Amino acid sequence: MAVSSFELDGIVERLRASGCVFAEDEAALIAGSARDAAELDAMVEQRVGGEPLEYVVGWASFRGLRIAVDPGVFIPRRRTEFLVGEALRVTVAGSVVVDLCCGAGALGAAVAAEREVSLYAADIEPAAVQCARRNLSPESVYEGDLFDALPVQLRGQVDVLLANVPYVPTDEIRLLPSEARLYEPHVTLDGGADGLAVLRRVAAGAAEWLIPGGHLFVEVSESQAPTARAVMVSAGLVAEVVTDDDLGANVVHGIRPAAGRAGDTPGG
Q1: Packing angle between helix 106-114 and helix 126-135, nearest 10 degrees?
Q2: What residues contact residue 53 under an 8 Å CB cut-off, 6+ apart?
Q3: Please, what is the Cα angle at 102 between 212 and 121, to 5 degrees?
Q4: Do β-strands 65-68 and 59-62 pair in parallel, antiparallel, or remain unpaired?
Q5: Which of 40, 142, 149, 232 could pair with 254 in a Cys bridge, judged by C-beta atoms 3.0 to 4.6 Å apart?
Q6: Pairwise CA distance, residues 75 & 56, whole Å
Q7: How far is Cα 11 from Cα 41, in angstroms, rounded to an integer?
């Protein structure tokens, strides 16, 4: 809807007073998303009250895509764009790609936007599955616990497995910014005592679902990366850690060996 500069300035001031660092940008996004004055006022109230901007406007930007995000669904982070970029290095036309713990389906959508692939996605959260079906082909999104959700015919056929698993240690959830801690489901954040409980389950099953030479990509914190790599090696994968300092992103990349010994650096 059209908003006068006077009205926009008022929104900016309200957002700034509530602690929004990028008040001008957020005001413009909210004003551009509202359909009428009543909705605009309600959206501003939501944001001033602390609700994440992505929930207020209904979408998140991810690698240039507008990903629909519903309240109660994990919000894709910009740093995770690095994981997608790494995955695209090994994804070719015709690849079978799985987005596990898919949330809104941002990772799968980003890969499919740049490669012609056979894409499958899965999540245990019904709200996430419903949301992902808006961002991906509905028939390609499955509900269930990790690999149990996937069609059995994919076993041993996956070229690229993306798994943005929860990796916040349980005791550290209380330290997260309030937008995540209060609004995103803890099941999408909580990685257990050391943050790697779900990753261990994914790594344990990855070799069974990947083709020989297939790739697994997960995101972790810097301090978790060495242990996460060791977990993958113990699960029979060749593994390496790749980082992007600008984004503060740490990705562990594992490969199911075609033959030979696990644990070496991919390509080495």
Answers
A1: 20
A2: 26, 29, 30, 47
A3: 55
A4: antiparallel
A5: 232
A6: 12
A7: 9
CB 85, CB 243: distance < 8 Å: no
Mean of pLDDT values over 94-117: 98
The C-alpha atoms of residue 58 and residue 66 are separated, in whole angstroms, by 10
- What 3-state DSSP class applies to 11? helix
What the block records as the tokens of 19 is 């602690």
Task: Tell the residue number behind the tokens 């050391």, with chain if given.
Answer: 194
Check residue 268 and give its pLDDT.
42
Q: In what order do the strands lie in the sheet with 249-255?
A: 141-143, 118-123, 96-100, 158-163, 210-220, 249-255, 238-244
263 confidence band (pLDDT: 50, 70, 90): very low
Contact assessment for residue 257 and residue 237, using Cβ atoms and an 8 Å cutoff? yes
One-letter identity of residue 194: D
10 Å Cβ neighbour count for 187?
14
Give me the residue label for tokens 């008022």.
Answer: 10
CB environment 226-244: b (16+ within 10 A), e (fewer): eebbebbbebbbbbbbbee
Of the pLDDT bands very low, low, confident and very high (cuts 50, 70, 90), residue 262 is very low
Q: Which residue from 98, 211, 229, 118 is spatially nearest to 164, judged by alpha carbons? A: 98
Least Cα distance to 98 among 166, 167, 149, 168 occurs for 149
The C-alpha atoms of residue 267 and residue 238 are separated, in whole angstroms, by 9
Question: At 29, which amino acid appears?
Answer: L
